[in-house]
């Protein structure tokens, strides 16, 4: 699945000031819920929280990929956020997080979920891409860097 198909400009926020994991997950829920007919902010938030209870989605190097599956989601939707100040996200390397890519997918399609997570993780494993994302000065720059071809992340 192509990232531009699941990440819209209005679900992208650069340099926000949230100061806790919970606040970030609430913001993600506010961004994503309107994109999914029949899904509420609390549905999205609960799905993300439920996954975090299984173990942190902080994958290290200042990156988190919170994700969840929703019963009523008709298609995958993503949000991308960078933070002004890194926050504790219980990451596997115990480092604070400042780059967050969230993904919500239909509950009945685990294959799409895993393939999309894998693609996002590979993209965020590119140090130059992460540097460009962190350096983005606007929501639109952030969005463009994420959906562009990997070679243009430089």
Task: For the structure shown, list the relevant keywords.
154 residues; alpha/beta; Mannitol-specific EII, Chain A; six-stranded mixed beta sheet; 6 helices; 41% helix; globular
Structure notes:
The structure is a single chain. The protein is α/β, with parallel strands linked by helices and 154 residues long. The protein has one domain (3-148): Mannitol-specific EII, Chain A. It has six helices and six strands. The protein has helices at 3-6, 21-32, 41-54, 110-124, 127-135, 139-147, and strands spanning 7-16, 58-60, 63-64, 67-70, 77-87, 97-106. Strands 1, 2, 3, 4, 5 and 6 form a six-stranded mixed beta sheet that branches. Strand 2 and strand 3 (63-64) form a beta hairpin. The longest helix has 15 residues, at 110-124. The mean pLDDT is 91.
Task: Write a concise synopsis of the structure shown.
The protein has about 150 residues and is α/β, with parallel strands linked by helices. The chain has helices at about 5, 20-30, 40-55, 110-125, 125-135, 140-145; strands spanning about 5-15, 60, 65, 65-70, 75-85, 95-105.
Helix content: 40-55%
Report the major sheet: 6 strands, mixed
Q: Approximately how much beta-strand content do the residues carry?
A: 25-35%
Mean pLDDT: 91
What is the CATH homologous superfamily assignment?
Mannitol-specific EII, Chain A
Distance between the termini: 22 Å
- Spans where pLDDT lies below 50 across 5 or more residues: none
The CATH architecture can be given as 3-Layer(aba) Sandwich
Domain PTS EIIA type-2: 5-149
Protein name: PTS IIA-like nitrogen regulatory protein PtsN
Pfam families: PTS_EIIA_2
InterPro entries: PTrfase/Anion_transptr (IPR016152), PTS_EIIA_type-2_dom (IPR002178), PTS_Nitro_regul (IPR006320), PTS_SugarTrans_NitroReg (IPR051541)
